[in-house]
Amino acid sequence: MPLSANPPPGDVCVSLTDATIGYGARAAVHHLSGQVRRGELTAVVGANGSGKSTLIKCIAGLMRPISGDCRLSHLATAYMPQQSELDRSFPAQVRDVVALGLWQSRGLLGRHRQADCDRIARALQAIGLGGFETRSIDSLSGGQMRRALFARVLVQDAALILLDEPFNAIDEQTIGDLLALIHRWQAEGRTVIAVLHDLDLVRAHFPRSLLLARHSIAWGPTATVLTPENLRRARRFRQNWEKDAAWCLEPSEQVA
Ligand SMILES: Nc1ncnc2c1ncn2[C@@H]1O[C@H](COP(=O)(O)OP(=O)(O)OP(=O)(O)O)[C@@H](O)[C@H]1O
């Protein structure tokens, strides 16, 4: 289904200006500036602790920058957190998880109409979980749970889709299916920003990348970002950073 929402293709939809993002006074992402345009597929890559999830949460509106600015151009946004942040022991069925994608349009306690149930069933079918509506989420495999979360994003029908490590601990067949869905979203004019660790996958499927090491090492076309030199710089920075540093790096102090 093509997307008619503003802004038009190629327009800036996420803009970061000297954004420093963190927890209390502790900065996790320093002085980040850059833009994402509508219809782009952007990968956010970097070592553990380099600030990827923090950035995604800020773009999702769950955190505000300590300083600087993070602006979105009035987009409906869908955010898929890391699996580790989800409590699978919560007594819920698959359809409840997918229905959460509808809360902005229906309200949290709103009754779901037959049309909503049909939409949830269609999303589950599309994602290879047809008939799983009443399965308890604690009975799903990791890959099935990830598919259910993609179904939740599907029903949200969002223009901007934020995925935090969507392929963690997922088999190749499932990754292939989910990548096909991401490409379909792009063809529909949606914008996707995904935190990823597999650089070969990024090179093959994500034309743009941001390489983070608490600050931006490089942001642009993937071929110019994921160079041996940039990856070396990111590694060097990682070796130097203090895990619990409370300071904020000024641009002039960042690793060359
Ligand atoms: N809720 C929090 N409170 C305080 N510090 C946090 C919190 N969440 C993350 N941090 C810290 O912020 C820094 C960046 O963490 P973040 O989760 O953004 O990194 P990441 O690149 O996504 O890492 P990973 O690849 O391991 O998921 C880390 O030093 C982390 O310890």
Order of helices and strands: EEEHEEHHHHEHEHEEHH
CATH architecture of the domain at 7-75 and 160-168 and 191-256: 3-Layer(aba) Sandwich
Helix content: 25-40%
What bound compounds does this protein have? adenosine-5'-triphosphate
What's the quaternary structure here? single chain
Task: Characterise this structure.
Residues 14-239 form the ABC transporter domain. Keywords: ATP-binding, Ion transport, Nucleotide-binding, Transport, Zinc, Zinc transport. One of its GO terms (molecular function) is ATP binding. InterPro entries: AAA+_ATPase, ABC_transporter-like_ATP-bd, ABC_transporter-like_CS, AztA-like, Metal_Ion_Import_ABC, P-loop_NTPase. With 256 residues, the chain is α/β, with parallel strands linked by helices. It has a domain at 7-75 and 160-168 and 191-256: P-loop containing nucleotide triphosphate hydrolases (Rossmann fold, 3-Layer(aba) Sandwich), CATH 3.40.50. It is 34% helix and 23% strand. It has nine helices and nine strands. The protein has helices at residues 52-59, 94-99, 103-106, 114-126, 142-156, 172-187, 199-205, 222-225, 228-240; strands at 12-23, 26-37, 41-45, 67-72, 77-80, 160-164, 191-195, 208-212, 216-221. Strands 5-6-7-3-8-9 form a six-stranded mixed sheet, sandwiched between helices. A three-stranded antiparallel sheet has the order 2-1-4, covered by helices on one side. The longest helix is centred in the last third of the chain and has 16 residues, at 172-187. The chain starts with 11 loop residues before the first strand and ends in a 16-residue tail after the last helix. 38% of the residues are buried. The protein binds adenosine-5'-triphosphate (ATP). Adenosine-5'-triphosphate binds next to helix 1. Adenosine-5'-triphosphate (ATP) binds at residues 23, 28, 46, 48-54.
